[in-house]
Amino acid sequence: MADELLGEIEALGDRLGDARKAIATRIIGQEDVVSLALSAMLGGGHALLIGLPGLGKTRLVETLGTVMGLSEARIQFTPDLMPADILGSEILETGADGARAFRYVEGPIFAQLLMADEINRASPRTQSALLQAMQERVVTIAGATRPLPKPFHVLATQNPIEQEGTYPLPEAQLDRFLLKIDVAYPDRATERDIVLATTGAAEAEASRVFDAEGLIEAQAVVRRMPVGESVVEAILDLVRACRPDDADATDAVKRHVAWGPGPRAAQALMLLVRAQALLEGRLAPDASDVARLARPVLGHRMALSFAARAEGVELDAVIDEVTARVTRVEQAA
Fold this sequence. Notes:
By secondary structure, the protein is of the alpha/beta class. The protein has 2 domains: 1-76 and 112-122 and 151-203 and 210-224, P-loop containing nucleotide triphosphate hydrolases (Rossmann fold, 3-Layer(aba) Sandwich); 226-333, Magnesium chelatase subunit I, C-Terminal domain (Helicase, Ruva Protein, domain 3), CATH 1.10.8. It is built from 15 helices and 11 strands. A 5-stranded parallel beta sheet has the order 2-5-8-1-9. Strands 3-4 form a two-stranded antiparallel ribbon. The chain is globular and about 75 Å long. Residues 252-321 form the ChlI/MoxR AAA lid domain.
């Protein structure tokens, strides 16, 4: 059984290497962003991409859909968007014999890869339409529960600067995202490559490497990957140390954090450290994977107190301090 799993992990690692090469034909640079997005999909979850306009977030989602062989849909969130625009609705039809009946018309959410563009521009009522879908992979319309396609992933984007006409995502919805991905400006050399590659007579096209069934199989392999006891303890230490009312919380967390991550954060780390190890060609994760994923997994599951924000405290700095302490403890053990 161990030899069989080893062979599956190695074969999947090779295939993921091909997928990353295919993605690189259209996404220049942004290796960490691509890695985190792939990790979210391998973990079977959703990702929130935070970045200014023009940094390639939409292009990344489109490329991932092509390479992973998934059906795609895109929703441009606006203040006047209604839940029915996402979920679909029933319409009254009259048949040739004069009989009238309701017919359900599916909304764009019935896709394997859904891009929710500028998700924070929709009203809370519309944002809540995604909650059941993201957690349970079903939607309830007119009293009927309808399953979504498998796999089902939401990659949402958000502009971190422009806040006029936006609605902050509720904590319950943020917690449904497996991780948050910060998309930064490229360095000069990368930006030069982007300019040259995207302004010529033709642009490179990505090729399909996976299909829906292949991705589901990959997700099953990820869940079977072994995780050492030291990594499990590091995950628990990290998550629990970020809760201000926990005995293991650091002084900085107790002073500055209003509320910390719940059990979903530990679940996300367990899945993502495996995915990261797989993407790097390793057979099992280690404590360095936990440290690397601390910000993406915890950053949207914690909040600073009002006093801490007034003092200019940064949440990333608090997470880094906790991560450094946990990592030192694990290394000493």
